[in-house]
Amino acid sequence: MYKRLLIVGFLIILALSLSAKPRIVILATGGTIAGSASGAAQASYQPGVLSIQQIIASVPDIEQLAELKGIQVCNISSQNMEERIWLELFKTIDNLFTHDLCDGVVITHGTDTMEETAYFLNLTVRHTKPIVITGAMRPATSLSADGPFNLYNAVALASSPEAQNRGVMVVMNDYILSADDVTKTNTVNPNAFSCPNYGPLGIMRDGLPIFFRESPFRHTASSEFNITNIVSLPKTEIIYSYAFASDVAINAIVDSGADGIVVAGVGHGNYNRAISKGLEKAFARGIMVVRSSRIAAGGVDQAAEEYDTRWPVSYNKNPQKARILLMLALTKSKDSKEIQRIFKEY
Ligand code: ASP
Predict the structure, then answer these.
(1) Angle CA 194–141–25, to nearest 5
(2) Is 183 a catalytic site residue?
(3) Residue 281 contacts by C-beta under 8 Å, 6 or more apart in sequence?
(4) What CATH number has the domain spanning 2-222?
(5) Tens of pLDDT along 264-306?
(6) pTM (2 d.p.)
(7) Which of the listed residues 112, 146, 185, 187 should we mutate to test ligand 1's pocket, taking the one with most ligand atoms within 8 A of CB?
(8) CATH architecture, range 236-345
């Protein structure tokens, strides 16, 4: 009798643990996914209006995927993203995972700087549990709003055992995109994001991920960047290169006390004499310079003799991602060879 009760009890516990839904925390930061327009077909709207509870309530069947908890971190347009919010996101996620308070995290975010937040967390949150970022190109009040399905897919992905240890992922328009390569390539279309160097990690289909590939770079649990005790990050800026660029911007950056500069070069990371002179000044003052490119794909390497090999190159990190990697690299080293090693590995 006792033995039978024990077996039944064991079976009940087993059934409960099998049926228990994954615990997903949604950290909401604002953006168009929380946006509202006065008309259903209107192009202009106000981002960051709806609360995370209102957004969750607008997605049919989402509660069937997971035990959801929404936390409103902020409600901003992501062009106004701040270092303070990045550090808060990092600390919140690190805390949730360290104390096993959830199985995965979804972040709702404006699309303008989504790729930057994704890459920052990809380099700093040293855990294997899934982190998925999503947003919308159309406000919540729009005809065919894309936010609800994007959020459904993001929660489904974060709930999937297959999403473990893949680095931070962006889910938009059914695509699963890796934080190290994803970039916004269309300013208005719902199919606004792509991975120009490596292609998507996979797609979402019927609420399940189908993965095509893995990221070839170090991320999350294998990252060497420990920012647990950091209260502010090194100051890094981007200088844009174009036909007959003047020295106004580069001189202002050099004089501003920046710790590092990323060059968004033309072509394979080139810049003209005016910028070159400014970079010489930067070099003399011990400011780290990294050569990147304003071109979407292909990257920048040290191969050709036309270039100044004193500066590390960003390989295929675009300037906005190179800036983030540089700020984290500078928390560890000011040696250009070491910075180059970091750019190769991340
Ligand atoms: N400006 C908005 C933002 O990034 C655009 C969007 O969410 O799509 O917050």
Answers:
(1) 65
(2) no
(3) 251, 254
(4) 3.40.50.1170
(5) 999 999 999 999 999 999 999 999 999 999 999 999 998 766 6
(6) 0.93
(7) 112
(8) 3-Layer(aba) Sandwich (3.40)
